[in-house]
Design brief:
The protein is of the alpha+beta class and 208 residues long. The chain is 21% helix and 25% strand. It contains three helices and eight strands. A hairpin with a 2-residue loop joins strand 3 (97-108) and strand 4 (111-118). Mean pLDDT is 91; it is low at 1-5.
Length: 208
């Protein structure tokens, strides 16, 4: 299939702007979170390659989140584990079956999470989770803290050696939370948390 630069060029621009938002100043605290939200709203509500269609953009003044809380910033350690067999996750879309390799475990007040390496071209860190707000206040399929294949560097997850900071204020919805035409890998059972994560993005009220 030939490349349609009108379409694919816009997608490349969208991905570039995602990276710029995650790396943009300010980075710290509630001020950094609010600046990030403002830029993310601009991207979602204005860019032609966002997950929202034109009607959804018209209905959406801004994406909704739990209030910011410093309690959702978790400092922890990445603990090595036996990776075991790769997980295979069927996206149900054109990406087909994705392979996830375990990098290690992260202990949080909400429960332990596995950090994965997504085995696609180039690879990337991937940290999906589901919690007790899922299907109620937040998207039923769960949310992501990072997916570096898509340019989400820092903020939700930062690593320095084995030291890790998880900021659940940056938990965000996968594309399928907005439109059922999108397909995305969801959190495996080992990343289902019993506790409530009252931080990050709320369920999108105008999903298709």
């Amino acid at each position: 299939m030939p490349v349609d630069w009108t379409t694919d060029g816009m997608l490349a621009d969208y991905r570039r702007r995602v990276v710029q938002n995650y790396l943009g100043e300010p980075l710290a605290g509630e001020a950094g979170w609010r600046a990030f939200r403002d830029r993310r709203d601009e991207l979602f509500l204005r860019h032609p390659r966002s997950a929202l269609d034109e009607e959804q953009k018209r209905l959406t003044p801004s994406l909704e989140y739990f209030p910011y809380t410093s309690a959702a910033v978790v400092r922890t350690t990445l603990t090595a584990i036996e990776p075991g067999d790769d997980l295979r996750v069927d996206t149900g879309g054109e990406d087909g079956v994705l392979r996830l390799r375990r990098v290690g475990r992260l202990s949080t007040p909400y429960g332990d999470l596995t950090l994965f390496w997504l085995l696609v071209y180039g690879g990337g860190l991937f940290l999906p989770f589901r919690d007790a707000t899922s299907g109620h206040e937040s998207y039923g399929g769960g949310r992501y803290l990072t997916d570096t294949v898509k340019g989400t560097f820092g903020r939700g997850l930062t690593l320095e050696g084995t030291r890790a900071v998880l900021d659940f204020n940056y938990a965000y919805n996968p594309s399928c939370a907005y439109n059922s035409a999108a397909a995305c890998p969801l959190a495996p059972r080992e990343n289902h948390l019993a506790g409530r994560v009252e931080a990050g993005e709320l369920v999108y009220p105008h999903s298709r």
